[in-house]
Amino acid sequence: MNLRYLTPLTAEEQLAHGLSAPQPLAIADRVRFSELDTQNHVNNKAYMDWFERARVEHMFQVWRRFFVDLPRPRVAVHSATIRYLKEMKENESYIVTSRAESFRTSSIVLDQQIWSGDLRATLKLVAVMQTPDGKGRYPVPEALRAHMIEVEGARADA
């Protein structure tokens, strides 16, 4: 099966390319020369760029429909913890994934992964939703909470 780049992958495509389980959002791409360091390994900043693109796509492709009749919140990254598991090199194809792991009143913890045959890196990111003016917290809508539990396997934290 050919790997489609820059387009959300189906569950079947994800499994066919080595992911351990389908994710709500998975997008494939290829390592570019400009993403390499002096030792021809992917630069750490490139991983962060890939994770950020997946997070934004996740919000637009999967979650946006839950805000159709609501003001759009600001989303601020509170913290992120990355774990590098195995190096990557030029021209390697990879899949970056994103799913909600848990949520609270106005924050969501994302579990993100990068796969290239096997798991290469992970990111845990805490995103805080704010009112459009940025002056207050924005509660996660009930429909989005239900989606995260039922579809993404997230849990509600106290």
Descriptive labels:
158 residues, alpha+beta, Thiol Ester Dehydrase, Chain A, 6-stranded mixed sheet, 6 strands
Care to give the gist of this entry?
With 158 residues, the protein is of the alpha+beta class.
Terminal CA distance: 43 Å
CATH class: Alpha Beta
Biggest sheet features: 6 strands, mixed
Query: SS-based structural class?
Result: alpha+beta
- Average predicted local confidence, pLDDT: 95
Number of helices: 3
**What is the 3D form?**
globular
Strand segment tally = 6
Looking at this structure, what is the CATH superfamily?
Hotdog Thioesterase
Proportion of residues in helical segments: 10-25%
Strand content: 25-35%
Q: What is the domain tally?
A: 1
CATH architecture verdict: Roll
Look up the CATH topology: Thiol Ester Dehydrase, Chain A
Measured on Cα atoms, how large is the radius of gyration? 16 Å
Question: From N to C, what is the helix and strand string?
Answer: HEHEEEEHE
Report the uncertain regions. none
Enzyme class: hydrolase
Pfam family, one: 4HBT_2
GO molecular function: hydrolase activity
Family: Belongs to the 4-hydroxybenzoyl-CoA thioesterase family.
Task: Summarize the structure in words.
It holds the Pfam family 4HBT_2. InterPro entries: 4-hydroxybenzoyl-CoA_TE, HotDog_dom_sf. With 158 residues, this protein is α+β, with helices and mostly antiparallel strands. It is 22% helix and 34% strand. It has one domain: Thiol Ester Dehydrase, Chain A. It has 3 helices and 6 strands, in the order αβαββββαβ. Strands 1, 2, 3, 4, 5 and 6 form a 6-stranded mixed β-sheet that branches. A hairpin with a 3-residue loop joins strand 3 and strand 4 (107-116). The longest helix is centred in the middle third of the chain and has 20 residues, at 44-63. The protein is globular and about 45 Å long.
